[in-house]
Design a protein that fits this description.
Strand 4 and strand 5 form a beta hairpin. The strands form two sheets. This protein has a three-stranded antiparallel β-sheet, with no helix packed on it. A two-stranded antiparallel ribbon has the order 2-3. It has two domains: 52 residues, no CATH class; 114 residues. The protein is mainly alpha-helical and 182 residues long. Helix 2 packs parallel to helix 4 and helix 3 packs antiparallel against helix 4.
Length: 182
């Protein structure tokens, strides 16, 4: 699957001074820097540089963009401010586990679509490979969700140890390990 090429452009050409930001909806005026990308079939998308670069799921079309979006949801859940109190840890941990579980469900659903597309060809070809990649990624995500759900803040006797920081790092390590390989 080809991704759209993203350009970081400056001043628009004469006659091309009206663009609307894909993210915030405000117009992009002359002299404002912007990102610009387009697909083979579809319009051109623009975004203020201040609104951030487009994510991988936004520069790809089709089922693969849903997989990328699921991975980005996991990244967003991990990026949420980590808890500072032991009482807040459980909710933070459960949010990450839920994001991992949702991503696994998305991968399984899309994997089954790829598998169905590969059946007429005897279970061979690119669709079969994508099915296997989705299925493997879903397994990794489910394992990570299980690991994350099992992390607890352990009481320690040494006052120099920070059990909350250790538990947070264990959750981050488990959640960041599954990666989609297509």
């Amino acid at each position: 699957m080809a991704r759209a090429r993203v350009k970081n452009t400056g001043k628009p050409r004469a006659g091309n001074d009206y663009h609307r930001c894909d993210k915030c909806g405000q117009s992009i005026t002359e002299g404002q820097k912007r990102y610009e990308w387009s697909f083979r079939y579809g319009g051109t998308y623009t975004r203020h540089v201040s609104c951030g670069a487009p994510r991988q799921s936004e520069t790809t079309q089709g089922n693969i963009s849903q997989l990328y979006a699921a991975g980005e949801d996991v990244e967003d859940a991990v990026a949420v401010d980590e808890p500072t109190e032991v009482d807040d840890f459980e909710g933070w941990r459960d949010g990450i586990a839920e994001a991992l579980t949702q991503a696994a469900e998305t991968a399984r659903e899309l994997g089954s679509e790829y598998e169905a597309a590969a059946e007429p060809f005897g279970g061979q070809g690119a669709n079969q490979e994508r099915y296997e990649a989705c299925d493997g990624w879903a397994d990794e995500l489910e394992d990570a969700a299980s690991t994350v759900s099992g992390v607890e803040v352990q009481p320690v006797d040494d006052p120099d140890d920070d059990p909350l920081a250790d538990a947070i790092q264990e959750v981050r390590d488990a959640a960041e390990s599954p990666s989609l390989q297509l």
